[in-house]
Amino acid sequence: MLEERGILTAHDLACAQDGWVRKRMGIVGLKTVHELRGIACHALDDQPAPRQTTCCSRTFGEAIRDKGQVHYAVMSFAERVAEKVRHAGQVAGAVQLFIRTDPFDQNAAQKSVSGSATFQRPTSDTRVITDAVLRIFDRIWRDGYGWRKAGVLLLDLGDPTSVPASLFDVIEQPDGLMAALDEINSRFGRGKARLGLARKGGEWRMRQENLSPSFTTRWGDRRRSAKCVRAPARPARCRWPAPACRGSRTRP
Q1: Does the structure show a pLDDT above 90 at 172?
Q2: Does residue 227 lie within any of the structural domains?
Q3: 149-170 pLDDT, tens digit each
Q4: Is residue 141 domain-resident?
Q5: What is the maximum span of the chain, computed from C-alpha positions, in angstroms?
């Protein structure tokens, strides 16, 4: 379409007639042309809106039928999602938990269950969140299914300074435990300090045998050369780049 019109470069597109662009490319295409001309059509959003929800969910390495294994996975997700909310400087008003089987396994019984709970007062305390998740988990658990995925969502996120209080609310000062856990994990690595509600290893862990190394973000994955070979120094009289350099001769 553009080639038939003689538009081969971005400059050609910027010089196209607005009427033709609007008719053939729509309003999005017209805005693109205006942006090429230096006319701002989309404001720069340097301060994204705060999140309203956040989630931590994983697909298990295999179908899990044992309630204890799924319990450990759910507790791990609850701890992680609470940590994410604290890092964002927010609090949650409600929590939701879901577990489901593998929808692609046609030979297995299918089931998907979920439940939610509302906090008496918005919070980001891992102890409060995991306690609510545990009650939901005991309520929605069903035996006889091979569960393949679970997730914990925190809903109604907001600023802790703008949380409305009622006449009967008992506002307790933080005891500093969550701040201490976050400080330890920030210094020594995520998951180094936990509440002990979930085991570190289990059947529910994701399969990561073929996980790509993180060369730029993890010291243990960085590449190491077997031998460091220094390039030979060029002669002092050579004033040409290395490929053109041949011994001590200089090009005329």
Answers
A1: no
A2: no
A3: 999 999 999 988 887 777 666 6
A4: yes
A5: 93
Cβ-based neighbour number of residue 149 at 10 Å:
19
Q: Whose CA is closest to 59, among 25, 104, 92? A: 104
Residue 128 has a pLDDT of 93
Q: Same structural domain for residues 58 and 111?
A: yes
- pLDDT tens sequence across 43-95: 776 677 778 899 999 998 889 999 989 999 999 999 999 999 999 999 999 99
Encode pLDDT of 222-241 as tens digits. 776 555 555 555 555 544 45
* Reported pTM: 0.64
Shared domain check, 143 and 83? yes
Residue 80, helix vs strand vs coil: helix
- Same domain for 59 and 182, yes or no, is yes
Residue 104 sits in the same domain as residue 147: yes
- Helix 177-188 to helix 126-140 angle, to the nearest 10 degrees? 90
Do the Cβ atoms of 36 and 13 come closer than 8 Å?
A: yes
Question: Per the structure, how many domains does the chain have?
Answer: 2
Domain hosting 95: range is: 54-162+173-188
- From CA 204, how far away is CA 134, in angstroms rounded? 17
Q: Is 168 part of any domain? A: no
Phi and psi angles of residue 180, each rounded to the nearest 5 degrees, phi first: -65, -45
Answer whether 84's CB lies under 8 Å from 123's CB. Answer: no
Q: Are 59 and 157 within one domain?
A: yes
